[in-house]
Design a protein that fits this description.
With 149 residues, the protein is an alpha/beta fold. The protein has a single domain, classed as Rossmann fold (3-Layer(aba) Sandwich), CATH 3.40.50. 31% of the residues lie in helices and 22% in strands. Strands 1, 2, 3, 4, 5 and 6 form a 6-stranded parallel sheet that branches. Helix 1 links the parallel strand 1 and strand 2. The structure holds flavin mononucleotide. The site of flavin mononucleotide (FMN) has 22 residues, from helix 1 and strand 4.
């Protein structure tokens, strides 16, 4: 199964995590990594497994670069039935009320369009001592990539 890793970032941490996840998954799968800011919703293919790696900005908002992708989703409302995805979210627990909302918004939007989330919903905490690349790598090793339909 092809794996498409989509990252949404403001300062680059989510891209580092996305690359770490891709490094793990490419041992067993064909993997492509894209910045959400360069990705067109029409290119979503329900046969691919999608890994959404997304940080949080503002007051629990998506990173600026990810907003056009989600605006396209809201406008076009593609039917994502049959698409499987996993989420690696990034945030900082100092933002108590909005901790890791970016990844949660990704999961909510994809689920609302019929897609199915698999695996553990990761919530990296920038205030924790574990580094995002190492944490993302370990998460990817535990990720149950679905078998092709
Ligand atoms: C201005 C600003 C606002 C932020 N707002 C939130 C927030 O509301 N919730 C949260 O969990 N993290 C928040 N964060 C933390 C970032 O999501 C976190 O540092 C993340 O690792 C950054 O990833 P990136 O470099 O890929 O953008 C904020 C960071 C900044 C600088």
């Amino acid at each position: 199964m092809r794996v498409v890793v989509l990252f949404g970032t403001e300062m680059g941490t989510a891209e580092l995590a996305a690359d770490a996840i891709a490094d793990v998954l490419m041992k067993t799968h064909d993997v492509a990594v894209y910045d959400m800011s360069d990705y067109d919703v029409d290119d979503l293919d329900i046969r691919d497994f999608h890994v959404l790696v997304c940080s949080t900005y503002g007051s629990g908002d998506l990173p600026t670069g990810a907003e056009p992708f989600f605006e396209q989703l809201d406008d076009r409302l593609p039917d994502l039935t049959g698409l499987h995805f996993a989420v690696y979210g990034l945030g900082d627990s100092v933002y108590q009320d909005t901790f890791n909302r970016g990844g949660e918004i990704c999961a909510e939007k994809f689920s609302a369009l019929g897609a199915v989330q698999v695996g553990e919903h990761a919530r990296h905490d920038a205030s924790a001592s574990f580094r995002p690349q190492q944490d993302a790598r370990e998460w990817a090793e535990r990720l149950p990539v679905p078998a092709p339909a």
